[in-house]
Amino acid sequence: MMRYIAGAIACSVVLPLSAAAQEVSREALLDRAAAYVSRFVDGFSSVVAEETLVQETTIPRRKRTMRSDYLFVRFPGDSLWMSFRDVFDVDGKPVRDHEERLTKLFMTPSSDARRRASDIASASARFNLLDIGTINHPLLAMSFLQDIYRARFRFILAGSEKSLGPKIRKVQFQEFQTPTIIKGNSNSDVLTRGLFWLDEDTGRVAKTELRIGGQAAPISVITLFKLDETLGIDVPVEMRDWYPDRGGEIRGVATYGRYRRFQVTTEETIK
């Protein structure tokens, strides 16, 4: 199976929202979505969620349940943000040194922190039933809405999706520039495509779908967002990912809860 790697993602600048229109244009909707993602980055920084990820393969039949802290981090003075999971329980068995890893991450100077966070993500990926890399993250597709990436994609307005809200509009996206954002085996270029479900008035992201691979049976990662009352922003509540593999498949269903802000405090005693 080909594995796919996603790295740190750049933050965009906040753009002003335009006045809501009766029939929103593609560019206006993308502007609103870029501004929304910028606000999301500000509101979601240093947030931790508890993720429960259930994976199943069909050939051979196997099942695994992983519980993780899912983190979204932007380090002070850094234009990049990272989202990654730190697995602390596999099929009911605890993973060692979990709290120590997170504390070291937030106490580390930002010059080292990205490397440490990447190491945590890679270490957690080894618990997957198959080597699928690090693309099964709920915020990956959303990051493509940032202004810094817009020129890499073609966008097409599609139909509405009333089940997600009265003003939700589907937008198709297709990457066409190389080098690509996501890399495959041997650092090969991998073009991505998919769908966004966006609120026409605010640019709010209600749902995303990332697709990679052939038209007939692409890898897919689908994320659903809902409002978290405590944080006051929409957050991932469910992610479903699917990978074809040698006549079988691997499926994952992740749910998210217990959102909180990660804080590290230190005390110094002078004798």
What keywords describe this structure?
5 helices; disordered C terminus; alpha+beta; single chain; outer membrane lipoprotein receptor (LolB), chain A; 271 residues; two-stranded antiparallel sheet
Mean pLDDT: 83
What is the terminal separation in angstroms? 59 Å
- The tally of beta strands, per DSSP, is 14
What is the percent of helical residues?
10-25%
**SSE order:** EHEEEEHHHHEEEEEEEEE
The CATH architecture can be named as Clam
Outline: globular
- Percent of residues in beta strands: 35-45%
Continuous helix count: 5
Structure report:
The chain has 271 residues and is α+β, with helices and mostly antiparallel strands. It has one domain (9-261): outer membrane lipoprotein receptor (LolB), chain A. The protein is 20% helix and 41% strand. It has 5 helices and 14 strands. It has helices spanning 26-44, 98-107, 110-125, 140-143, 147-150; strands spanning 9-10, 47-57, 62-74, 80-90, 93-94, 153-160, 168-175, 182-183, 189-190, 192-199, 205-212, 219-228, 233-245, 248-261. Strands 1, 2, 3, 4, 5, 6, 7, 10, 11, 12, 13 and 14 form a 12-stranded antiparallel sheet that branches. The protein has a two-stranded antiparallel sheet with strand order 8-9. It is globular, with a radius of gyration of 19 Å.
